[in-house]
Amino acid sequence: MHQSPDEMTVLEMLGSTNLRQSTPEDYRILREIVNSFERYSGVGNDIQLTLAEHAANELIMCEKTREYAKGIMDPSKFVLHTVRKSPLFQILSKMPKGAALKVHDTSMCSLRSVIELTYRENLWVCTTQDGCRVEAFRFAKEKPKDPMEKLRELRGERNLRKYLLVRFSMYPLASFTTNAHAWRHMMGIFDLLDGLLQYAPLWGDYYYNALKEFYADGVRTVLPQLYCLDGSLLPKRQTVQIYKDTLEQFKKENPGFIDSKLIYAPIRHVQPEVKEFPGFVVGFDLVGQEDVGHPLSQFAEELLKLPDHINFYFHAGQTNWYGSHVDQNLLDAIVLGTKRISHGYTITKHPVLMRLAKYLNIALEVCPVSNQVLQLGSDYRNHPAATLIAENVPMVIASGNPAFWRAAPLSHDFYMAFLGIAPMNADLKFLKRTAKNSIRYSSLKDEGKAEAMGKWKRKWDQWVANIAAQKENQENK
Amino acid sequence: MHQSPDEMTVLEMLGSTNLRQSTPEDYRILREIVNSFERYSGVGNDIQLTLAEHAANELIMCEKTREYAKGIMDPSKFVLHTVRKSPLFQILSKMPKGAALKVHDTSMCSLRSVIELTYRENLWVCTTQDGCRVEAFRFAKEKPKDPMEKLRELRGERNLRKYLLVRFSMYPLASFTTNAHAWRHMMGIFDLLDGLLQYAPLWGDYYYNALKEFYADGVRTVLPQLYCLDGSLLPKRQTVQIYKDTLEQFKKENPGFIDSKLIYAPIRHVQPEVKEFPGFVVGFDLVGQEDVGHPLSQFAEELLKLPDHINFYFHAGQTNWYGSHVDQNLLDAIVLGTKRISHGYTITKHPVLMRLAKYLNIALEVCPVSNQVLQLGSDYRNHPAATLIAENVPMVIASGNPAFWRAAPLSHDFYMAFLGIAPMNADLKFLKRTAKNSIRYSSLKDEGKAEAMGKWKRKWDQWVANIAAQKENQENK
């Protein structure tokens, strides 16, 4: 629990002092006592840095302080697309971040690789406005609409690539004024991608590519029914089988890779297709915009019937309204025994639930960029995760649908959390704790976690050594 | 303390249950237990409503639910200048709100009444851009610049009124992109008003008018040196004397009025002019943009030397950066024995300090509209006061410089707190608790508080009776 007996002592000590009549010495002592309490709570306080890490930390904090100072001057410059130029971002992008614990399958891969898929054979495209607006994709033998090549010729390859990059993304971000509006647009992207990605021969390649781009554990999938060239639909178990086969293949070819698991996450509806593949399909979730969907409580009875090996990883509290039925999802997620909470944006308005999450060791999947893009909050400095960090509530940094906002799988989210949400003095200890948390709170079993931690640690030490060397180079110049 | 032994029991009970394997019945019982904890914590939970209040509450909640539903559809409609049309705002504007505990003297009165002052005799005006831009006002016998009448003729009375309304205000609000930018603009308004309001014969009238517009307790004043028609400056004690005489006069003419006190609040500098007038000048504060001013700790020694009858009511933590020296002001305010904290916007990022505020019964002066206008947060739903409400930390709703955003002294802030910050189910109990808090945490002595509470209660009961009658009328139609 966060409120240790020692904290109680401090409260009582200050309560029994007439502070207004302190001597300057008393004031300084009391101030130092309270301050030290703050210093030793918070995410990352349990980490001890090595000598090499200390050296790396100095360089990181130097860059952080520089960007912080720029931000205090003009926080409006703190925007997504300029971040890649920042030296701090460059450092963070190379940091081994552990696992991406919250990612949705059809928005994992970079848009560049999605656009490559439009060059595959037998792709047809349905357009309106004389070919100006793409409405749907479809792989087929027979001609259902215009061939993709024809459209490419008509509009020019470069233009079409540019156009698709916009259609598959949430840009321009400023065009959404509300959460509901942003959600509608995002669901439109999913629809547009369906015909492209749900083509059975492509599905495995897409997932393989995602594994190449990053290590994704607990990939949330709505388990679409894949289709074949002749239009026939495969059973859903086939979708899982493809996932499984692709992963085996990838692991064989990349022995340094940890593992990947699936969380079956249909759109706010309980379906029983999760009973096969124990050990690979490890969890269950319900996704979709919570404001407009059914609350978790409505599915409680069915959910509790799911087999024991299926853990819960519920989306809950992804709202900035306070006290609507979306907040109730947080309560239900916890009481139903969820292992993690996706978003939980509203949990700081429910201190009892926040303390329960901490006590029950339920990690919150914090997705800073997603929250900004989906209009939950425009200013990172008001993100509720600051309170989670201060209260040392278990948390991981995650992304969700990074491709849609053209972000790196985790780097943008780490950057925003580190610079915009965490306190000014949060340093390498904070980064190390959150990276380690992604393995600690992953869906791996204990042995898997130990192995994963070992693999991660080797990469981490290498990264730290590189920064320390970089620092020494700078000093010797 | 918020964490009662009972809460610990709930934590332990849930911790020792295998929630994932609950029966549906267990789930429902556990859910209800946790839920009831939430229901009985939070600001207002200690209030018992009378029968008449219950009736009034039904009408209020009916209007609130209606506006909430509109807001969920499109929160972007939730803006300041459209609020006055709302039926809920009409109800809240008539609600007896107790005292305005945070208001700065030169921005208390409505701009309409400030503009009336420009019709006084002997007013001269300094302009640039051929009379297009007003730079300063000055009362004088000799001609220092152009007479005000001449400018009025030149630009036309109606146009000039319109122009001054803009110059004296923070509109258009959207034109500020950062906190620092908004602050610069606000300091410009204060400068422009100086020559107008600091004219000795006017000062008393201005304060008298403020008392007419609302009951302001703990008015924060920088104690300007007033000037006379011949240009001579009065000693600062004269400024306080005028305040005191005007208040006496007002109280004589308005026996239902409670009282008003001054808090001496120089711009981040300790001056000793507060020792006279005990019982009227009751407090001390340091004001100004905290980011760019000196931290409280720098003044600690001098502050602790101020006489015992001067209480502290410090501005602190008015920032959305996390971990800068502005946050330290929060710590210092508390350790120096402050009675209230003005803003404390960043306190939810410092749980130890938040628990200290609760334990030491230090009320936070929450100013929703000010925070929005000064760019701390654009969306009320992310305002940190939601966590204060949930944690039942002492708080009052206050305004600051309401005239500058053309808001009513307290009604806009109550409306935004009630609809945008408090939970959906916050009702008349919440409103009553926050109104009562404004007296409980005022600078009055115990006897004064008892008397004030009596006066407030009579007005409150009348207001409740009126709403209940309104409801009955509606039902009989």
SSE order and pairing:
The structure is a homodimer of 477-residue chains.
Chain A (H helix, E strand, L loop, with lengths): L4 H11 L8 H16 L11 H23 L13 H8 L8 E2 L6 H7 L5 E6 L4 E7 L6 E2 H8 L1 H11 L11 H19 L2 H14 L5 E3 L14 H18 L8 E3 L16 E4 L15 H6 L5 E6 L8 H11 L4 E4 L7 H9 L3 E4 L1 H6 L11 H7 L3 E3 L13 H11 L6 H13 L5 H31 L1
Oligomer: homodimer
Known CATH architecture of the domain at 85-106 and 215-457 in chain A = Alpha-Beta Barrel
Overall 3D shape of chain A: globular
Number of helices of chain A: 18
| CATH topology type of the domain at 85-106 and 215-457 in chain A | TIM Barrel
Characterize the largest beta sheet of chain A: strand count, sense, and whether it forms a barrel.
Answer: 8 strands, parallel
**Number of distinct beta strands of chain A:** 11
- Beta-strand fraction estimate of chain A: 5-15%
Give the mean pLDDT of chain A. 89
- Determine the CATH superfamily of the domain at 85-106 and 215-457 in chain A: Metal-dependent hydrolases
Protein name (chains A, B): Adenosine deaminase
Domain Adenosine deaminase (chains A, B): 280-451
Organism (chains A, B): Drosophila gunungcola (fruit fly)
GO molecular function, one term (chains A, B): metal ion binding
